[in-house]
Structures are given as structure tokens and as C-alpha cells.
Amino acid sequence: MQDIEAVRAALRAQRIETPSWAYGNSGTRFKVFAQEGVPRDPYEKIADAARVHALTGVAPLVSLHIPWDRVDDYAHLAAHARDYGVRIGAINANVFQDDAYRLGSVTNPDARVRRKAVHHLLACVDVLDATGSRDLKLWFADGTNYPGQGDIATRQAYLAEALAEVYARLSADQRILLEYKLFEPAFYMTDVPDWGTAYAHCLELGPQAVVCVDTGHHAPGTNIEFIVAFLLSRGRLGAFDFNSRFYADDDLMVGAADPFQLFRIMHEVVRGGGLDPAAGVNFMLDQCHNIEPKIPAQIRSVANVQEATAKALLVDAEELAAAQQAGDVLAANAVLMDAYATDVRPLLRELREEQGLAPDPVAAYHASGYAERIRAERVGGTQAGWGA
Ligand code: PSV
Ligand code: MN
Ligand code: MN
């Protein structure tokens, strides 16, 4: 039997970080459908993130993407976040939008472009300093479209060089989160395509370099929970970018495509001690809502992560270990499936009520009048990401 008080305490303590870009307009390669009331600047994105936190009680951090979220004074932005009851989370360095990056950023064959990219990464560490955030998240769109287009090993050397320069600039309490992605926008070869490459670079850099697992960045059929278990056991699981995929990097709501996979991932997190803040795992969302309303979609994702976490916490670890040890395949599997089949929504509703929150945060959002207010107040919202 699981200790239900321990389960409740773990759920109360869990923190989930939402991304600034999820609150702005975003779309597919074909069309961005603008929505009324979306934020016009980073200050309003933070206000929306704060609303998600106010309704869920577990989302007090918001990631920024630089330069999408460029402001003159980052300390001022951090103070604004604090006024709204949230904090700035990971700083995402964007080295994929300038024309100069056509052939790559830190792995570009032109030394001047590589310098420009590293310069931006270092400027992002300045943003960490100004906002008090811990994590610099690095995702590189770098890669090639055609065999022969670039030299794979040389590009790896350039990548290592750039990472080392940025790592040397970190202070003791800051980290690099290195994110990998199988393909897109490069279609033949990507410079950081998988967790193995990211892990190898992190090992070379040192203990302040850890891997970010974006759940949308793998080939179909990849066993993501294996990756999670491995990285966690080596102290190199730094963060998740949670989202769902049916085909490629779809960036849909977490747990929408495959809630069972999310449960399996959270089971490995729980099993490996990853819920303990000391493990340093940052539970972030990375989503782009292109047709659905943004704030309720973020709330849904936060709740979906909580549900998967609650089910993972309900796995009877002792019974599972005993069945595994006895070689009882069916019993071991049944322990997991029993936990997965538990309806944890009443438990989560109860926990919210204990905190003085509404039991159903999406319904509370709709009843609050916030959507109507921002629709009236904000005219001409921003585009969040690609093409911004
Ligand atoms: C790239 O696909 C990615 O997952 C990275 O995390 C970027 O920062 C984000 O998406 C941009 O939308
Ligand atoms: Mn991501
Ligand atoms: Mn992605």
C-alpha cells in the first residue's frame, strides 16, 4: 500500500513551468490564426502565466525565449513577475531566426556567424543574472539538409567549442539545459539529434550541464521513459519540455496524444527520485496552441502532468519490486496498470480545495471573466514564435 499522505505531499510540492510563447499567437507552417486578447508584450505574457498559477497553485515559473521576449530591463521584468506572484524560469536562447543562421548558428562554417551566435548565448547568461533564473536552455536548429552539405565531425567540434565558452561563463548556481531533437528544421543531419549526443556534450562540459528531454523530439516508437531513467540515474536529467505528438514535433497539449506514455515517464521520474527538488529536474511545458485558446490549454496541460504524477505516485513500489524479483511478469505489469487505471481527479480536486483553489481550474477560468477582460483590453496581440 502506498502512503497516501506522502502522495499528497509530493503532489503539493510539485512545480510546473509554463512557456511565455504558449500565450502568444502561434501556428503551423501554413497559417497563424490570430486570437483576440493574446499578450502584446512579455509583461502581458507573464500576467497570463500568473493567471495559470493562480488557478492551479503549482505553476509559479515562466520560461522566456530571447529575443522573442526582448525587453530593455530584465531585472524590471523579473520584478513585474514577482508582483504577479510568479518567477522567471528557464531562459531559452534563440539562435535560429536571424538570416545569418541559414547554414547554422554555433556550427556555421563561417566563424563570424559562430561568434554572433555565441555572443547571443553569452547575452542570455546576462539575462539569467538579471532575472535570477537558474537555467539557460539551448536548442539548436543547426544541421544540414543534404549529404555532403557540411562536415559532421567539424560541426561537432564547433558545437563543443561554443558550449565550452558558454559553460565557462556560468556562475556556480547556473546550469545549461541542452535540448536535442531528431530533425526539423534540418532534414538530413541535426547537430544535436538525440539524448546520447546531448549527454556526451554535457559530460565533457561538467556537472552544470544537463539534458532537456522534449517529449516531442523523438522518432515514433522511441522508449522515452528509458532515456528518462538513464539520465536520472546519472544525475543528468535537467528538465522536460512536455508536449504531445501524433506525427512529428506537434507541440500539442501534454498527455493529449498518449497519456499512458506520460504516466510511464512519470513512473521513472518517481522511481528515480526525480520529484525531489534536490534532483534538479525542471518540469516545463513547451507547447504552441494554434487553434485552441491558450490559457485554458496551459491549465489542461498542467492538470494532465499532475494526473500522470499522481498515478505514478500510486504505483505500489514494494509490490512491484517483489513481482519483478519473483519473475512474475503479469503481476508486475498489473501493479503498474492498477495505478494507471486509478481515477486521481477526485484527489487533485481535493488538494486544490485544501489550498483554497477552485476544484476545476478550467471552469474557474471561464467563470472568472479574465478572457473577456483581456479581449477588451488588448488589441493587436503578438505572434509567439516562428516567423515572429
Ligand atoms: C524546438 O522544436 C523547441 O522544442 C525548442 O525548445 C524551442 O525553444 C521551442 O521548440 C520553440 O518553440
Ligand atoms: Mn522544446
Ligand atoms: Mn520542439
TrEMBL record:
Gene3D superfamilies in alphabetical order: Divalent-metal-dependent TIM barrel enzymes
Protein's GO biological process: L-lyxose metabolic process; rhamnose catabolic process
Residue stretches making up the Xylose isomerase-like TIM barrel domain: 72-249
GO molecular function: L-rhamnose isomerase activity; metal ion binding
Alphabetical UniProt keywords: Isomerase, Manganese, Metal-binding
Keyword Metal-binding: yes
NCBIfam families, per database record: RhaI_grampos
Protein name: L-rhamnose isomerase
Organism: Embleya scabrispora
